[in-house]
Structures are given as C-alpha cells and as structure tokens.
Amino acid sequence: MSSARAVKMQSKRSRAAVPVRRRSSSKADAGAIPKAGALSAEAEDTLNAIRAGQVDALVIKGGNTDQVYALRSFDEIQRTQTRLKTAGAARRRSEAQLKALAEERERLIQDLHDGCIQSVYAARLNLEACLPLVVADPEKATRMIAESTVALNLVIQELRSFINGHQLQIAGEDLRTRLQTTARAAGNYGLDIKVDIDEDAIAALTSAQAFHVLQIVREGISNAARHAGASTGRISLRHRRGSLHLEIVDDGSGFVAGKVNKLGLGLHHIQARARKLGGSAKVQSSPTRGTRITVTFGKA
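Request: output the structure for the sequence above.
Response:
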C-alpha cells in the first residue's frame, strides 16, 4: 500500500506535475523525502527548490521508488489566478452582451408583432371591406381607403424607427388620436369600439408608457376581431389613486383562461408590456362571456 504526505504545501492545486524517482536503495528511510545525493541532479534541484519554499510538492512513497511531484511555483499560481480573473471578467461581459442582445431581439419581436403587423392587418381588412362599397357607397369607400393610407404611413414611420434603433415617440394627445384611429379601423369590419380616455391619465404618461399602452390596445382589439368575433368593445384609460388603469373589453366568444397559450404571442406580449410599465396585466375570460384585459401601473 503506498502512502502520501505533503511537503511545504502552500496550495492545493496540482498542475504540471513532475515525477522524480529515487535511485533504488534498501537502506532508504521509507518515511522521508529522498536525501540529496541519492537522486539525479534534476531531482536534487527540485528538492532544493521545495526546501527553499519556491515550489509546492507532494511525495508519494511506494516500494523502492519515491514519487516527488513538484507543483506550480508561486509565480505561476499568481499568473494563473490573474488569467482566470481576466477570463472570468471577459465571460461576464460576454454574458451581459448576450443578455442585452436577447432582450433587444425580444423587444423587436414584440414591437413588430404588436405594432406593424397589427396595423398592416387592420389596413388589409379596411381595404377588403371597402371593395363592395366602391359602387354602393363611394364616399365611405374613399374614407376607408384614406384611413388605410394613414395606417400604412404609420407603419412606415414605425419601421424607420426600428431601422434607426429608436422607439416610436408618442405624445399624450397623439396617443388619443392613435387609439381613436384603431377604434375606427375596427368599426370598418364590424367591431364597434368606444374610447374613454381620462385627461389626467393622458397627462401622466411618458412617451415610452404611451407607446406600450398603444401596443397593448392594438393587440387587445386585434384579438377581439380576429379570434373572438366580437361586435362591441370598449377602451378605457383612467387615473385613480395615483395609479393608471387600462381596460380593453369585448363581447366576443371568449376562451378558457387556463388555455391562454393556445392564442399565441399576443396575450404573452400584453403581460410583458405590463411588466415594462412596472405594473401587471389581468386577463378575465370565459366561453361566450367575452374578454376583459386590465392593466394597472404607476406613473413614471
């Protein structure tokens, strides 16, 4: 059975081990490090370095051979620690960059899905709805085409903001106008939406908050029209007791609340935007009873 003991162990790291063999001697002390003169010149230099405290070492005794393992010198250990610290800092920077890229990708997906895609979809529905009116009601058809043109111009504006790396800037009254435009567009395909906006709520919103509110409303109205087949609905934004309350209500077919995942990205994006507003979103729905989306958040 071989035995091992540490000699001058200042570090537990065992790297670049250099075995040193003792010349065979039946008189050797089985429990001691081989003495100078019984080893090769290289081994004696190693042992001298061990005794001088310049390197760490481990001696393993077995049979007629002593294995002297010289570990890294203190300078090597310090250099290794420095390299590890540098590598660790670089890894943390890389992880932070990857996290930032992932968050930016998620933001772009949300903005494209909730903004541009919904606007293009609304414009398409407008144009489809106005086709039979070109002859039957040219005045209404002309108005619907004009609304579709405005919606598509807004999409172009949003896409330019994405390309330039900027979020669309929305002032208070601009938000009101955009919400009313969304409601009118919904009316062109059979969904009557009432808009109820509190002046204090509009004044309390920052541009970033207004942007998220607009995207949440667009998604809620799109769900009501595309998935629920709703005929009426309401958009409400109120300022109460220091908090802002946004509601999107429809009388559509509703859904089982526990099966929200089947509705795709839309409701998940509403939850994500509510968190970005520093608040929370609550979705209440049941089959044939419509849907109510409530978002509550504080002032910036």
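The helical segments are 41-51, 74-130, 133-136, 138-163, 172-187, 199-204, 207-226, 265-276.
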